[in-house]
């Protein structure tokens, strides 16, 4: 079954030790097994014969390595090292902006041969055509306005056309390439067959575009195609097939999470009846520059989008590449960490491209890697001894801890200065709430002099402003110390009992009401675990005194942002200060950006300086190699998830 795989890696070698730094990117991985656990598909497949076919699916990719195409290719190669696919499927839009313009077009090298050069990707590539492969021009310009460029060729030999991708001259340039308008790929007699189709002629709105026929100059354009003939061919192939598994691959969606309902009415009208009639189990496509999985209601098939081979769509990403900005930031951060590590005399290598011996990897340093990567790392690197995170938060390690053998040690960065920075930021946020600074700031923007009106001469002494802290680890403890020094009444809540003689310390869900009932401001510094996920919800907020404040600098998944907005609108909360969010970066359309009761910070309350982090990462490994104990506070507690 498909799983989204999102990563890109760098590695470090120090005296024969390889260290991997993991970050995030996207493509789609398919493993077809007739004895899979998905009951819907298993029943549809009508059989339990133990045959396997594995392949990668990627679409909308050919951009000369730009817009993350090279990074996705590296991620594909890394996955291929352990997944061992049989072939690769391309769902179309293979060469941007307007396809190839002659069979010797150098873009075939710069967007295909040179980009997918890793050993694990030297497999057959089965491709369908996308709209850009037909010569779609920017802004639907006319061909004469954007003439193709083909070295010294004359204009009669240089033209926009999908026919160039169908040419056998491309196969001579790279044996892997196979692209046809429509073809079938039987993989196991009576068991599995793939059907590749050209969906472009089905899209009625293409027929009125200036590039649809390119004035008939090229031949092979959309206006030259017979939709009826292609449908007859597809239905005949489906009718003839005796395969229990049938998978159809085209370029355009039938349903989409990127477009309004009905946008792809043509494919729904034309393709879906054939999928239903002939018991097709899956339809794989691209066009939307994203990944998603849709199960249409009352249908017999699943629809999978794999169109994230390079530039991701704004419908998927908001503000260009915004939701994946965290991934891009991680890539930049990885490079910066690598530079710092090199400064310590460590030789760095790029992984997987420059490392051939995975068995040499003994120490992994991870940075925001996605789900499943540590499990894959262990399978690919059987001599792995230790994993270290590059920050205080280690939920991205904790979520995979069970996949690693017990002897693999898991570390996190422990930085006393980080705790001090966090305490200072929280003190600022508490004072902002205590003195109603946001109201004064709004008055400033409106040029209103609000002397004595906002606070109405109420007591704002520290001794009258009770602070409740959720989470009393290193960060929470540092904040409690700072608050006590400044004369604030403090109480705390933790999941397990803690002894603290200087202030009340509650524990467990049963003591939440007593803890929350008397606080003026609640500060969350908890780690994310299965128990704390979604904990800051409507039920908990109702336990606070009306008009209380909330500050969250822990983890965004702990809060339910819709409930925060409701609590603010209803007056249960007077204001919130947030440094973390359910999804980061915060989505452009989130109401938190503009709500008058919210202060938004981009996850900056504290951080680990690279020099201190690198020193600790390398020190941990030196201790492991020497057989000495790494300080216990640096160990991640697998049972507790942090």
UniProtKB/TrEMBL annotation:
InterPro entries: Calcineurin-like_PHP, D-isomer_DH_NAD-bd, Metallo-depent_PP-like, Metallophosphoesterase_PAP, NAD(P)-bd_dom_sf. Gene3D superfamilies: 3.60.21.10, NAD(P)-binding Rossmann-like Domain. It holds the Pfam family 2-Hacid_dh_C. This is Glyoxylate/hydroxypyruvate reductase A. It comes from Auxenochlorella protothecoides (Green microalga). The chain crosses the membrane at residues 16-36. CDD domains: GDH_like_2 (cd12164). It comes from the Eukaryota. Residues 428-605 form the D-isomer specific 2-hydroxyacid dehydrogenase NAD-binding domain. One of its GO terms (molecular function) is hydrolase activity. Residues 54-290 form the Calcineurin-like phosphoesterase domain. Keywords: Hydrolase, Membrane, Pyruvate, Signal, Transmembrane, Transmembrane helix.
């Amino acid at each position: 079954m498909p799983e989204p795989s999102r990563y890109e890696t760098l590695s470090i070698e120090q005296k024969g030790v390889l260290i991997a730094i993991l970050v995030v990117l996207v493509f789609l991985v398919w493993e077809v097994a007739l004895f899979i656990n998905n009951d819907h598909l298993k029943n549809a497949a009508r059989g339990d014969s133990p045959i396997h076919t594995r392949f990668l699916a990627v679409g909308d990719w050919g951009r000369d390595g730009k817009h993350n195409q090279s990074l996705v290719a590296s991620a594909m190669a890394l996955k291929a090292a352990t997944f061992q696919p049989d072939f690769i499927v391309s769902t179309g839009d293979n060469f941007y902006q307007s396809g190839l313009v002659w069979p010797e077009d150098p873009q075939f090298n710069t967007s295909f041969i040179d980009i997918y050069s890793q050993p694990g990707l030297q497999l057959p590539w089965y491709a369908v055509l996308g709209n850009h492969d037909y010569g779609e021009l920017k802004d639907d310009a006319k061909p004469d306005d954007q003439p193709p460029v083909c070295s010294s060729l004359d204009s009669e030999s240089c033209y926009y056309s999908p026919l160039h991708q169908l040419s056998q001259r491309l196969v001579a340039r790279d044996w892997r390439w196979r692209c046809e308008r429509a073809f079938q790929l039987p993989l196991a007699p009576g068991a599995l067959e793939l059907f590749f189709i050209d969906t472009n002629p089905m899209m009625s709105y293409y027929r009125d575009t200036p590039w649809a026929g390119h004035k008939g100059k090229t031949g092979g354009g959309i206006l030259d195609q017979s939709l009826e003939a292609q449908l007859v061919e597809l239905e005949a192939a489906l009718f003839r097939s005796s395969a229990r598994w049938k998978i159809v691959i085209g370029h355009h969606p039938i349903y989409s999470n990127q477009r309004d309902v009905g946008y792809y009415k043509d494919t729904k009208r034309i393709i879906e009846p054939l999928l239903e009639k002939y018991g097709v189990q899956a339809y794989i496509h691209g066009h939307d520059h994203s990944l998603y999985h849709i199960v249409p209601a009352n249908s017999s098939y699943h629809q999978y989008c794999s169109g994230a081979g390079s530039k991701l769509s704004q419908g998927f990403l908001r503000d260009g590449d915004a939701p994946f900005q965290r991934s891009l930031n991680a890539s930049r951060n990885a490079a910066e960490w690598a530079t710092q590590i090199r400064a310590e005399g460590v030789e760095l290598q790029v992984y997987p491209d420059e490392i051939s011996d995975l068995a040499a990897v003994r120490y992994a340093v991870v940075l925001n890697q996605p789900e499943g990567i540590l499990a894959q790392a262990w399978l690919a690197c059987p001599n792995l001894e230790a994993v270290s995170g590059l920050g205080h938060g280690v939920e991205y390690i904790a979520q995979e801890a069970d996949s690693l053998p017990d002897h693999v040690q898991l570390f996190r960065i422990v930085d006393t200065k980080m705790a001090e920075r966090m305490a200072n930021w929280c003190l600022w946020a508490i004072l902002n709430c205590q003195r109603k600074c946001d109201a004064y700031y709004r008055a400033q923007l409106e040029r209103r002099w609000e002397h004595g009106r906002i606070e109405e001469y109420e007591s704002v002494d520290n001794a009258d402003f009770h602070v409740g802290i959720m989470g009393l680890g290193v960060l929470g403890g540092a904040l409690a110390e700072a608050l006590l020094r400044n004369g604030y009444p403090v109480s705390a809540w933790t999941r397990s009992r803690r002894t603290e003689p200087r202030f009340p310390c509650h524990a467990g869900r049963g003591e939440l009401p007593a803890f929350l009932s008397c606080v003026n401001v609640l500060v969350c510094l908890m780690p994310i675990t299965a128990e704390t996920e979604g904990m800051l919800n409507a039920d908990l907020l109702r336990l606070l005194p009306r008009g209380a404040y909330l500050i969250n600098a822990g983890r965004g998944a702990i809060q339910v942002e819709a409930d925060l907005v409701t609590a603010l609108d209803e007056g249960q909360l007077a204001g919130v200060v947030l440094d973390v969010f359910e999804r980061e970066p915060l989505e452009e359309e989130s109401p938190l950006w503009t709500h008058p009761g919210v202060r938004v910070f981009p996850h900056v309350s504290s951080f680990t300086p690279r020099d201190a982090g690198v020193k600790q990462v390398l020190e941990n490994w030196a201790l492991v190699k020497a057989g000495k104990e790494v300080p216990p506070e640096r160990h991640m507690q697998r049972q507790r998830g942090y």
